[in-house]
């Protein structure tokens, strides 16, 4: 039973970066922008958070730095695609390459250093409950933050006027513009939120999961997060569920090795990537349903003729 | 304040001018970066962009690096023109090297004049087969080719690492995860004697010329252009999107595979885990910088090759981190996308406070 | 009528690259007046109202509202000053509910609007379900949602941009009653249209725009339709000449055509049957969104259909073929959307001939394009159809709507098809180009082709068709000779199916 609790804790640790990155991208996509640069924003968050922690030793400040790192990167994307009307696919790729380059340059001096343990929730009495205590009341703080973010995004999108406006912009940007909403402004904010969340996802890797800095440490998680958004049909809670399923696949791979399954480790490492492909195939098969779920203006360039 | 006004027709002038403008902006931004890193910007830029061209060896190396970049970018450009986003060329490159290289290792130590051509065919087929997976999933199940081809790149790199640590490992190699060195019959003939430049460069130029011919004059090229510019018009004309997706992915996969095989059979001479050198991703920048135009890609491929060599030179001579290279490439793509707006829009500057 | 105007516009000018959309436009709208803004397509009406509603800003000129300066920077400024607008292309969100759509169009309301919507609709004699997705509503129902949204803000001036272009004749009557009632409550209406009869029936005053300038101002009730047309077009166009042609055998036959739509909120085609003979122009009337898009896709061959036998050309089944094979056998098509569907905007006119001309005009040999032949064919189209362009190397997107439409129609007509299928042949096209296009369709039919025209413009169909049928909710009514059918009958068919399928919004 202790093994099960440990596995579940492992799943949560593997999933949380995906939760952050995917929920941020979900908001950006709901506003009608496809930002393929999640990977680049994550890695920027990872290094920004790490660098801030090393120089200040302050965890909340490190998280703010990670969010800023991701958000500033996203702002570059917003300028390219919203102001200069550049192709969203190409700009997303550019963002990823740029993120890798800058983070590698920035991270030169940080390799080999450790961030140390991340603070965990500890409620005397509750955290000590056998089996479930550590699982439910003993995670690191970022896990609780990630759950709160998912809930907040759900509430914002479905229960507030701001969320309604955001969805309207993603649904039909020309109509939103004609009514008088600032399509570019709203999308820029949504993108920056996406960037901040991707930054937190990246920081989770460098501050909690490993916790150290390594070049290219996101290793495709940003792309998996993109697939998760499609999987979630643009619904926050399904996004959370998807991230946890993926975390599960990753953990399965580690435990299979521990259980002495005798195939090379590399094959097991392929699992998350292959799982992403399988999920994409399953979810995309019904083209009409996919079109119905997706924000109608997703990925289209908006030009205001005024 | 400024306002963008759509041009009625794309600006020819801007179309050719914007890559140069992007390059200029990159040099400025790069200079600022070097100042921030505490280096003299002029020395650094000279080392990267001029230095390599001053020696014969440097020039030959330029051709070595440009070969895979041009080959891959030409294939990618065909797809990008048709809105088929194969961004997994890196993976197809790896599989091409593995498949073609395996032929050499299977024939070892034998081989004749037939060996290298066979390796090329198998390498290209390997790359094409890897690209066929996103093609199939896209056309059959509507799965996004960007994500599928990218995920397959991670898989390919892992596969490379398994194979060089197992079946392809050099039996006399002290358990290093590397294949044995290819026999002579399996090596690319030199283009310039006593340098690493090989005849693969000729193949890359030929591929670009053929692609240009297809785009400008052949029905397939026309279909690619229409699908990219106006998908609904392509449906109206009756062009099969499925066929174009397959064509673009197979061609770009084959070219990437060929590039991988050239690399393994050329400068490297064996299969090693370090084979993937980001060429597959850099080629995306090459394709855009060359305006998705095969002839432009020859020029942009050579330029990008320069950043590889110059970046290495700067690393040695000035102690600059290797990441400088990727930052440069990132800048270049960023600025290109930013100034690209000038091709389709004109900028009208306005004074603040006008009733506009 | 009150003496001080509600909205006074002086010297409003707005330019676009190469075009002066509005050139020193001046006019005023009185309180409680229905004021018509009349002009043909491209005269500058849309630009003008966008400036009044704050979507666009003028280069120069002034506006005063109720005696005070009025400089809207955004639509919410306009709304705050009591101006509401009902757009031609509705500003509704298909994936959101009626209530959400209404809320989005109103400034600063956090409260639940459901009750207000139901109450206001009831006061005007509609029923509306606030929870329905707008994507499931008919076009007429959507317009009512827009009107409700505007009325809930208690405006002083309502701008209506071409409101009847999407309505059945019966729905037009309902709309007019609503508008007269709004007027009786002291609200002014700026009514934009190019339809002369309805302006004469509804409006108190008219300002006429031509090529961006105000050319006349009058009381439309005192003018004849002919007089208004002359002011609007700047001359008189002769109606299309119809030669008496003998009707030949059936060339195009649809036999129980079925199609399941693959788009969100699409319309399935149900058992569509018709026969078009040589020499005939068969008109299909109907309000937008009743299956016209799907029918056109099925006819072009863009979407595969269940059985090849459902479409026959000269007695041979062609339903199993794609567009290219259908063209080879003698069919040609002009879809509704010029830019991006019938033509690639960024490509030259000569490259655009290759879209549909490769097969019948032999513009390719052995897989290679014959660019000289394409250029020659493009030149022929430009010359024969009077397309105004600086040359066939110019991009399609650089042509005006009317000229590009002439090019697209010419490209198909000059291939001498056995069957020509046209959707919305003169949508958004100026009167001169429209007349030329109509004449070319009549001439093509006279030469022995069968022509099928799908259009929402009833006047157009009545002017050129020999047979008319109505499409409603994916079903086609039986065809009637054009000389025997009345506007009221057509209107009833247009509305019938839509109402039967939309119980939540049953009209009046």
Explain this structure.
The complex is a heterotrimer of chains A (306), B (356) and C (508). Chain A is mainly alpha-helical and 306 residues long. Helices cover 73% and strands 0% of the residues of chain A. Chain A has a single domain (2-293), classed as ABC transporter involved in vitamin B12 uptake, BtuC, CATH 1.10.3470. Chain A has helices at 2-30, 38-56, 59-83, 88-106, 132-137, 141-159, 161-171, 173-179, 183-209, 221-231, 236-258, 265-269, 271-284, 287-293. Chain B has a domain at 71-291. In chain B, helix 1 (12-36) crosses helix 2, helix 3 crosses helix 11 and helix 5 (115-141) packs antiparallel against helix 10 (241-268). With 508 residues, chain C is α/β, with parallel strands linked by helices. In chain C, strands 13, 16, 19, 20, 21, 22 and 23 form a seven-stranded mixed beta sheet that branches. In chain C, strands 6-7-8-3-9-10 form a six-stranded mixed beta sheet, sandwiched between helices. The model of chain C is unreliable at 497-508 (pLDDT under 50). Chains in contact: A-B, A-C, B-C. The interface between A and B is large, with 45 and 46 residues.
């Amino acid at each position: 039973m202790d093994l099960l609790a440990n596995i579940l804790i492992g799943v949560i640790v593997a999933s949380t970066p995906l939760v952050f990155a995917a929920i941020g991208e979900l908001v950006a996509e709901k506003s009608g922008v496809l930002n393929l640069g999640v990977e680049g924003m994550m890695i920027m968050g990872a290094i920004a958070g790490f660098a801030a922690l090393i120089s200040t030793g302050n965890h909340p400040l490190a998280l703010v730095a990670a969010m800023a790192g991701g958000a500033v990167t996203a702002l570059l994307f917003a300028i390219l695609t919203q102001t200069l009307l550049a192709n969203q696919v190409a700009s997303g790729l550019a963002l990823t390459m740029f993120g890798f380059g800058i983070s590698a340059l920035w991270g030169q001096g940080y390799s080999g250093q450790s961030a140390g343990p991340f603070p965990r929730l500890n409620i005397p009495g509750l955290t000590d409950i056998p089996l479930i205590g550590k699982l439910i009341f003993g995670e690191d703080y970022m896990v609780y933050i990630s759950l709160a973010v998912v809930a907040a995004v759900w509430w914002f999108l479905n229960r507030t006027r701001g969320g309604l406006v955001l969805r309207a912009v993603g649904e039909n940007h020309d109509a939103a513009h004609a009514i008088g909403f600032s399509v570019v402004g709203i999308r820029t904010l949504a993108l920056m939120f996406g960037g901040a969340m991707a930054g937190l996802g990246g920081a989770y890797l460098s501050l909690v999961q490993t916790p150290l800095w390594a070049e290219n440490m996101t290793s495709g998680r940003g792309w998996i997060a993109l697939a998760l958004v499609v999987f979630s049909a643009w619904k926050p809670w399904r996004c959370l569920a998807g991230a946890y399923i993926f975390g599960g696949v990753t953990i399965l791979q580690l435990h299979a090795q521990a259980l002495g399954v005798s195939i090379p480790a590399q094959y097991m490492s392929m699992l998350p990537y292959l799982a992403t492909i399988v999920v994409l195939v399953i979810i995309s098969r019904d083209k009409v349903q996919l079109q119905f779920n997706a924000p109608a203006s997703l990925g289209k360039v908006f030009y205001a003729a005024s | 304040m400024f306002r963008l006004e759509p041009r009625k027709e794309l600006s020819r002038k801007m179309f050719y001018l914007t890559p140069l403008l992007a390059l200029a902006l990159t040099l400025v931004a790069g200079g600022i970066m070097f100042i921030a890193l505490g280096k003299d910007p002029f020395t650094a830029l000279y080392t990267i962009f001029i230095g390599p061209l001053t020696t014969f060896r440097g020039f030959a190396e330029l051709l070595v690096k440009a070969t895979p970049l041009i080959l891959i970018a030409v294939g990618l450009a065909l797809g990008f023109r048709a809105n088929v986003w194969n961004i997994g060329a890196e993976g197809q490159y790896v599989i091409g090297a593995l498949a073609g290289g395996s032929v050499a290792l299977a024939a070892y130590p034998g081989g004749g004049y037939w060996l290298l051509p066979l390796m090329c065919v198998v390498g290209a087929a390997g790359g094409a087969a890897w690209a066929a997976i996103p093609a199939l999933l896209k056309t059959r199940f509507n799965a996004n080719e960007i994500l599928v081809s990218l995920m397959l790149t991670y898989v390919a790199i892992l596969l490379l690492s398994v194979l060089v640590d197992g079946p392809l490992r050099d039996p006399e190699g002290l358990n290093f995860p590397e294949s044995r060195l290819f026999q002579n019959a399996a090596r690319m003939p030199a283009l310039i004697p006593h340098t690493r430049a090989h005849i693969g460069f000729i193949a890359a130029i030929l591929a670009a010329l053929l692609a240009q011919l297809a785009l400008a004059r052949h029905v397939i090229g026309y279909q690619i252009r229409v699908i990219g510019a106006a998908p609904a018009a392509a449906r109206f004309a009756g062009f099969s999107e499925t066929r174009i997706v397959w064509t673009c992915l197979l061609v770009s996969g084959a070219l990437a595979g060929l590039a991988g095989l050239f690399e393994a059979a050329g400068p490297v001479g064996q299969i090693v885990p370090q084979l993937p050198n980001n060429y597959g991703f850099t080629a995306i920048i090459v394709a855009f910088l060359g305006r998705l135009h095969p002839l432009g890609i020859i020029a942009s491929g050579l330029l990008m090759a320069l950043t590889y060599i110059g970046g290495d030179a700067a690393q040695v001579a000035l102690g600059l981190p290797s990441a400088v290279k990727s930052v440069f490439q990132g800048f270049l793509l960023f600025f290109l996308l930013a100034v690209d707006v000038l091709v389709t829009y004109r900028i009208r500057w306005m004074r603040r406070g006008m009733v506009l | 009528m009150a003496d001080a105007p509600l909205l006074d516009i002086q010297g409003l000018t707005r330019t676009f690259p190469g075009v002066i959309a509005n050139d020193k436009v001046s006019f005023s709208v009185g309180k409680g007046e229905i004021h018509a803004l009349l002009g043909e397509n491209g005269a500058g009406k849309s630009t003008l109202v966008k400036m009044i509603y704050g979507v666009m800003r003028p280069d120069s000129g002034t506006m005063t509202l109720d005696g005070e300066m009025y400089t809207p920077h955004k639509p919410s400024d306009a709304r705050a000053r009591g101006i509401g607008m009902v757009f031609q292309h509705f500003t509704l969100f298909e994936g959101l509910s009626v209530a959400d759509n209404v809320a989005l169009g109103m400034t600063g309301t956090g409260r639940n609007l459901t009750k207000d919507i139901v109450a206001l609709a009831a006061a005007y004699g509609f029923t509306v379900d606030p929870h329905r997705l707008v994507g499931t509503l008919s076009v007429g129902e959507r317009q009512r949602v827009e009107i409700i949204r505007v009325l809930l803000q208690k405006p002083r001036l309502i701008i209506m941009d071409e409101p009847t272009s999407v309505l059945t004749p019966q729905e037009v009557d309902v709309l007019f009653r609503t508008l007269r009632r709004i007027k009786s409550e002291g609200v002014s209406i700026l009514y934009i249209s190019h339809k002369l009869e309805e302006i004469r029936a509804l409006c108190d005053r008219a300002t006429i725009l031509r090529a961006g300038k105000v050319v006349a101002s009058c009381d439309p009730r005192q003018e004849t339709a002919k007089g208004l047309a002359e002011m609007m077009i700047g001359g008189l166009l002769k109606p299309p000449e119809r030669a008496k042609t003998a009707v030949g055998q059936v060339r195009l036959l649809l036999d129980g055509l079925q199609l399941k739509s693959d788009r969100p909120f699409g319309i399935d085609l149900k058992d569509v049957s018709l026969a078009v003979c040589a020499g005939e122009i068969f008109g299909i009337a109907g309000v937008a969104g009743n299956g016209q898009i799907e029918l056109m896709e099925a006819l072009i061959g863009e979407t595969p259909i269940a059985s090849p036998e459902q479409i026959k050309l000269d007695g041979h089944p062609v339903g199993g073929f794609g567009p290219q094979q259908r063209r080879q056998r003698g069919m040609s098509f002009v879809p509704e959307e010029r830019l991006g569907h019938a033509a690639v905007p960024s490509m030259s006119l000569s490259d655009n001939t290759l879209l549909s001309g490769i097969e019948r005009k032999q513009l390719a040999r052995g897989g290679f394009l014959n660019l000289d032949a394409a250029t020659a064919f493009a030149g022929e189209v430009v010359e024969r159809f009077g397309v105004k362009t600086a040359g066939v190397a110019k991009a399609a997107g650089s042509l005006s709507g009317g000229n590009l439409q002439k090019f697209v129609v010419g490209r198909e007509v000059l291939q001498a098809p056995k069957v020509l299928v046209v959707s919305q042949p003169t949508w958004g096209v100026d009167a001169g180009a429209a007349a030329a296009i109509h004449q070319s369709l009549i001439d093509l039919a006279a030469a022995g082709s069968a022509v099928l025209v799908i259009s929402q413009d009833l006047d157009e169909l009545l002017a050129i068709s020999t047979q008319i049928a109505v499409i409603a909710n994916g079903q086609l009514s039986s065809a009637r000779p054009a000389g025997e059918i009345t506007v009221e009958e057509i209107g009833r068919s247009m509305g019938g199916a839509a109402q039967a399928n939309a119980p939540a919004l049953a009209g009046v």
